[in-house]
Amino acid sequence: MKKSLIPPNIQILIYPSIILTALAILSFVVINFGLAQISKQSQAVSEAKVNEKILAEKEATLTEVSATVAKEAASVSLALPEENPALAILSQLKLLALSKTIVLSNIKVGVGSQEENLLRVNISFNANGQDINVLDFLSSIKNISPITTIEKIKMSQVSGVLSADTNVRGYWSLLPKTLPKVTEPVTNLSEPERNLLEKVMALTPPSFTQVTPSAPSIRDNPF
Amino acid sequence: MAINLIPEEIAPKGPAARLSSFLRTVSAIGLTLFILVVFGLTSYYLVNFFSLRTSQTKQDNLKKVISSLESTETSLILLRDRLSKVKEVFAIESADRNVEAVSGVFAQVPPGVSISDFETTLKKIGISVNAQDSLSLGQFMTTLLSADRFGTVNLKAFSFNPASGYAATFELFLK
């Protein structure tokens, strides 16, 4: 019988030791890898839950405001347009003057200027009429849309006719250029924003005439 | 029954045999624990995996709904942007309040007093009046002083002409 070089006492320890060492190494590798994967996945799950919540809230908010927001945005855009509102303001002033039976003359529109986010245009005119009517007209300027503020008034009165040399200012502002990412939260208007909106919605909007397109017609032969 | 073919004289004995037996037991327990841990980790991974997939499906559906509401979102963003700018405009100082205050003065001008000139800027109001007599001028001054709107009333100029009466210029500051 061939005799092994390794003593039997050592021989019986080799296999269990190898198995135990292999198990330890395998456990270390598998547990490390597994925990890393699980940690990464848990993070992804929590991020997904947060995104899901944001999207659900966003969807609820948008559904809630969808019926009214377009009209409100249009009203506020008329009050503070994206382009120079001088013409709309002049139209509003003339309509207002007509309703208060006063006469506007020497109307001048200045060059637009920018100050931070807002662009401004100065408009000057002379309002003539009965003192009560002129004052009523001047008091009503703050109620027109586009938003118009009074800068300076110089009045003189001769035999009951008041002449008011008035400087007003109109404002406009460029529109935002980008939409936020779809996963960014959207909230409904806050209470102060809602109050401000009510104030803006109460302004008298400019009256626009919409020209309806005419139907195609047969052109007469000119020859 | 297991048959031990190792001759009695070379069979391991003593501490080596006990250590070997201990190592085998530890290996068996370790292997069982390893299998349990692997099973646990795999189960947890699978639960998370399905949870993630469900959440992503929900997100995709919500994104589709939100995309269909894009015009509403655009309007809401536009509305909020305009409102923030409108707030800036309303914060700008304006002479609107001065006009309202002066309208009140015009409405209460006593007989014998006429307002000849009036000027308002953002900060102050200037009024020039002509009065036939001191009584009517006094009444007008009382009107100005009793008005709640004005914080300060300054008499800037005062003159008397026997032909036309009194002429006075006031500078008014709102409260």
TrEMBL record, chain A:
Record field: transmembrane: 12-35
**Pfam families xref list:** PilO
Q: Which UniProt keywords apply?
A: Membrane, Transmembrane, Transmembrane helix
Taxonomy, superkingdom:
Bacteria
The keyword Transmembrane helix belongs to this UniProt entry's keyword annotation: yes
Q: Which InterPro entries match?
A: PilO, Transl_elong_EF1B/ribsomal_bS6
Q: Which GO terms describe its biological process?
A: type IV pilus assembly; type IV pilus-dependent motility
Q: What is this protein called?
A: Uncharacterized protein
From TrEMBL, chain B:
Q: So where does this one cross the membrane?
A: 28-47
* UniProt keywords, alphabetically: Membrane, Transmembrane, Transmembrane helix
The taxonomic lineage of its organism, from the top, reads: Bacteria, Candidatus Woeseibacteriota
Q: Which species?
A: Candidatus Woesebacteria bacterium RIFOXYA1_FULL_40_18
* Keyword Transmembrane helix applies: yes
Q: What is this protein called?
A: Uncharacterized protein
